[in-house]
Automatic annotation (TrEMBL):
Belongs to the class-A beta-lactamase family. This is beta-lactamase. It catalyses: a beta-lactam + H2O = a substituted beta-amino acid. Gene3D superfamilies: DD-peptidase/beta-lactamase superfamily. One of its GO terms (biological process) is beta-lactam antibiotic catabolic process.
Length: 286
C-alpha cells in the first residue's frame, strides 16, 4: 500500500480550508496562488473574468516600461497633466492647483503607490489601450483587457470594463518576479514600485506578519474587490491573485484576509520544515 506524505496531507488540508472560505461567501471568488520555488498552484475559478478596478494599473505600468525600452519615449521625459485627465477617486494630482510637468516615471509611481487616477489617465493616453492590450496578448494574458480610462461609469455601464482573470494575473506576477518581463532590471524596478504601495490598502497584508514584504496592487469597485500580489516570504515566496465580484454588503467581508492567512501558514510551513514536518533552519533543508 502506497504511503501518503505529510506534505501531501498538508496541501490537501490547505486546499480544503481555502475552498471552505470561498464557499462561505455569496460573492463570486477567484483565487490563484503559486509557489515561486516549484510552481505548485492553488486554483479556484482561475479562468473567470473579473473587473479589475485599480489592479489594471499594473499592466499600464508594464506598458509604460515596455514602450520606454522600445525607445518611444524616455521615462525621464515630462508630461503636462491636462485638465481633461483630472478625475476623482484616489490620488493627489486632482487636488493640486495647476500641477507642474512630471516625469513619466513619477507618473507611474503615483499611479501605483497612491493609485492616482489622474496620473493613470495621463499614462493611458500615452501608452494607448491598443498597445497595452497587444502587450498583454504577447505575454499570454489573453483575457486581460484595458478598455477604459479611470472613473468612467458610462463606459463601465456599456460593458467597457477593465478585466482580467486570476490565472492571467498570476502569470503576469510570475514574469515580474522571475525577471522575465523585458529584462531582470526592468522587472525588478516594477516590483520595487509595487512594494511601495501603502500596506494599509492591502486586504492580503492583514494575513501576513508585518515583517513579510509584499509587492501588490489592490482594486475596489462597487461589488468588486481585487488584489495582485507577490508575497516576498524569504523561505517560500509566492504570488496571489484574488478577485471577488457580485459581493453582498455585510456578508463575508473578510474573505480575502482569511484566504491570505491560510496561504501564509501553508507557505511558511513548507519553507521552514523538512518533508516530515519538523521545523529546522531553512538553510539546512534539502
Amino acid at each position: 500500500m502506497a504511503q501518503t506524505s505529510a506534505q501531501k496531507v498538508l496541501r490537501q488540508q490547505t486546499e480544503q480550508q481555502l475552498a471552505a472560505i470561498i464557499n462561505r461567501s455569496p460573492a463570486v471568488t477567484g483565487l490563484v496562488a503559486v509557489d515561486l520555488t516549484n510552481g505548485d498552484m492553488f486554483s479556484f475559478n482561475a479562468e473567470v473574468v473579473f473587473p479589475q478596478a485599480s489592479a489594471i494599473k499594473i499592466p499600464v505600468l508594464m506598458s509604460m516600461y515596455k514602450q520606454a525600452h522600445e525607445g518611444k519615449f524616455s521615462l525621464n521625459d515630462t508630461r503636462q497633466v491636462a485638465a481633461a485627465d483630472a478625475v476623482g477617486g484616489t490620488g493627489v494630482l486632482k487636488d493640486l492647483d495647476g500641477p507642474p510637468p512630471m516625469s513619466i516615471r513619477n507618473l507611474g509611481i503615483l499611479m501605483i503607490t497612491l493609485s492616482d487616477n489622474t496620473a493613470t489617465n495621463t499614462l493611458i493616453d500615452l501608452v494607448s489601450m491598443q498597445e497595452t492590450n497587444a502587450m498583454l496578448r504577447s505575454l499570454g494574458a489573453k483575457h486581460t483587457l484595458l478598455q477604459r480610462r479611470m472613473i468612467n461609469a458610462a463606459a463601465s455601464g456599456r460593458g467597457e470594463e477593465n478585466i482580467s482573470t486570476p490565472a492571467d494575473a498570476a502569470k503576469i506576477l510570475q514574469l515580474l518576479y522571475k525577471g522575465e518581463f523585458i529584462n531582470k532590471a526592468t522587472s525588478e524596478e516594477i516590483v520595487s514600485i509595487l512594494s511601495k504601495t501603502d500596506r494599509q490598502t492591502s486586504r492580503l497584508a492583514p494575513g501576513l506578519p508585518d515583517n513579510v514584504p509584499v509587492a501588490f496592487k489592490p482594486g475596489i469597485l462597487n461589488g468588486v474587490s481585487t488584489e495582485w500580489a507577490i508575497v516576498l516570504l524569504p523561505e517560500r515566496p509566492y504570488v496571489v491573485a484574488v478577485m471577488e465580484s457580485y459581493k453582498v454588503k455585510g456578508q463575508a467581508e473578510r474573505t480575502v484576509e482569511e484566504l491570505s492567512e491560510v496561504l501564509y501558514q501553508y507557505f511558511w510551513r513548507m519553507g521552514n520544515a523538512t518533508r516530515y514536518g519538523t521545523y529546522v533552519d531553512p538553510k539546512l533543508i534539502k
